[in-house]
Design a protein that fits this description.
Layout (H helix, E strand, L loop, with lengths): L1 E9 L2 E9 L1 H6 L7 E5 L11 H11 L24 H14 L30
Antiparallel strand pairs: 1-2, 2-3
């Protein structure tokens, strides 16, 4: 199994792409599994980042023409949204998130005097992000 790491800075953040290739499976006509990892750095929250081109580039690098793509986030305060990248829709989504989980609200999660679970030395008040 071969791996290749590509660093590809994007205007909306930095993407680091790691691609695993399995040419021996493709040569036999057997279905293969290709894994890739993308790291997106955000500059604020909330933030919507279109990763369509990044995903397509990964598929092109692996030579994948058909199949399924699974995209997921490994962090609790990030999410994947499938929708058009239409500016007014994005604006509506920002407004909805502000109403749903405003940073100005009081959250028990932010009360470090009583919270004892999932704490770290540099913990910040981020109840709205969950």
């Amino acid at each position: 199994m071969k791996s290749e790491v590509i660093t590809d800075p994007r205007p909306n953040g930095s993407a680091q792409i790691a691609i695993t290739k399995e040419p021996e499976l493709r040569a036999q006509g057997l279905p293969g599994i290709h894994t890739a990892q993308m790291v997106i750095k955000t500059s604020r929250g909330p933030q919507f980042i279109d990763i369509t081109d990044n995903v397509q580039e990964m598929l092109d690098k692996c030579g994948i023409k058909e199949g399924h793509v699974l995209v997921y986030s490994r962090h609790t305060t990030a999410g994947i949204v499938l929708n058009e990248n239409e500016p007014l829709l994005i604006k509506d989504m920002y407004r909805y998130l502000e109403k749903l989980a405003s940073p100005a609200e009081d959250y028990e999660h932010n009360n470090f005097d009583i919270r004892t679970v999932n704490m770290c030395d540099d913990e910040c008040a981020n109840g709205h992000a969950h």
